[in-house]
From TrEMBL:
ATP-binding among keywords: yes
Top-level EC class as recorded in UniProt: transferase
Name used for this protein in its record: Uridine kinase
Underlying gene: udk
UniProt xrefs under InterPro entries: P-loop_NTPase, PRK/URK, Uridine_kinase, Uridine_kinase-like
Length: 212
């Protein structure tokens, strides 16, 4: 993976799945088991498009589960920069204003880059940058229960608003755009973070790549 006088190319791991699937839990489990290596988590949610030119009435209608909601071009550009061991300024999204804020976060390249999000396997250009592609596969009923618990406890939303959003955008977008990307995965992890066998296999493979 390296040439004389040149740093090894970082390893890129794509982790995807529907909302509430456990993909974040899987990503953090990888972190926990790869202590001693430098790791970076790159979240697709940071790359929601800037909507500052739109009125608020239009911003609140954004379908955040559709590919068009993401600035995938910028995400690809910044991953390529990280692969060249260059620092990048990751955008910060303001969910209260439904647009990108004027803040950024300075991110330094690491040995292992975990790219996590619902649509990270949707774009072939993004997939081509990944060394390992993971799909976390969890039943719809479990995912909606997890989403309800999260949105009620952490985001102060009403039960009806969560259900309405799930039925109108989250579920249909999952079956139209997210679930079909399962065919691109190198590893399918049923039930997310509770599947320790799959996580151990994944970590072993990552270690093999790093040590090459």
């Amino acid at each position: 993976m390296s040439t004389p006088n040149k740093r090894p190319r970082p390893v890129v791991i794509g982790v995807t799945g529907g909302s509430g699937s456990g993909k974040t839990t899987v990503s953090h489990a990888i972190f926990d088991q790869l202590q001693g290596h430098s790791l970076l988590m790159l979240e697709e949610d940071s790359y929601y498009r800037d909507q500052s030119e739109k009125p608020m009435a239009e911003r609140v209608k954004t379908n955040y589960d559709h590919p068009d909601a993401f600035d995938t071009d910028l995400m690809i550009e910044q991953i390529k920069q990280l692969l060249e061991w260059k620092n990048v300024e990751i955008p910060v999204y303001d969910y209260t204003e439904h647009t990108r804020s004027d803040k950024t976060v300075l991110v330094e390249p690491k040995e292992v880059i975990i790219v996590e999000g619902i649509l990270v396997l949707n774009d072939p250009r993004l997939r081509d940058l990944m060394d390992i592609k993971v799909f976390v596969d969890t039943d719809d009923d479990i995912r909606i229960i997890r989403r309800i618990q999260r949105d009620l406890e952490e985001r102060g939303r009403s039960l009806q608003s969560v259900i309405d959003q799930y039925q109108s955008t989250v579920k249909p977008m999952y079956h139209q755009f997210i679930e079909p990307t399962k065919r691109y995965a190198d590893l399918i992890v049923p039930e997310g973070g509770s599947n320790q066998v799959a996580i151990d296999l994944l970590v072993t493979k990552i270690r093999d790549i790093i040590s090459d």
